Amino acid sequence: DLSLLNRDESKVILVDDNPKSFRKHRANALPVKPFKGEPSDRSLKLLAELLVSLRHAELSDVRDVIQTYIGVEDAGEEFQRRREEMAKQQQLMMQQQQQQQQQQQQREESNGGGKKKRGWFW
Predict the structure, then answer these.
(1) Low complexity bias: where (predicted)?
(2) Domain extents for the chain?
(3) Which residues of 1-19 are buried (b: 16+ CB within 10 A; e: fewer)?
(4) Domain 2-110: what homologous superfamily?
């Protein structure tokens, strides 16, 4: 029960691998997969990265972000998936901007640099 902590619940994050343990405080809960002792398990590392990013975001209420993780099995892995997706989208946007700049440059070059020549006509 988070109310026993005597803390502002808008600043409290509950992390657990058992959904029953955060049944009363779902709005504050980030789910993780149970640790099975596998050396390749990176859930804790990814979760730490998520928590650090939440800390740096200086949110007025962490529950606003936590609600976007409702229904996921592992918040750290979902954070990584979202981060990779965002990186792909940013890369695509940069490529599109470069293409637009190249097209604009080609149009200007085909129009004589986009400048009208002034002077004598023969």
Answers:
(1) 89-105
(2) 2-110
(3) ebeeeeeebeebbbbeeee
(4) HAD superfamily/HAD-like (3.40.50.1000)
Rounded to the nearest angstrom, the gap between the alpha carbon of residue 117 and the centroid of all alpha carbons in its chain is 50
3-state DSSP call for residue 77? helix
Q: Which structure tokens are listed for 120? A: 């004598």
For the chain, what's the residue count?
122
Per residue in 100-120, pLDDT tens? 999 998 888 887 655 555 655
> Given the structure tokens 């004589």, which residue do they identify?
112
Please write the tens of the pLDDT for every residue from 21-62. Answer: 888 899 999 999 998 888 888 888 999 999 999 999 989 999
CA 77 – CA 91 distance, rounded (Å): 21
For residue 26, with 0-12 CB atoms within 10 Å meaning exposed, 13-18 middle and 19 or more buried, which class applies? middle
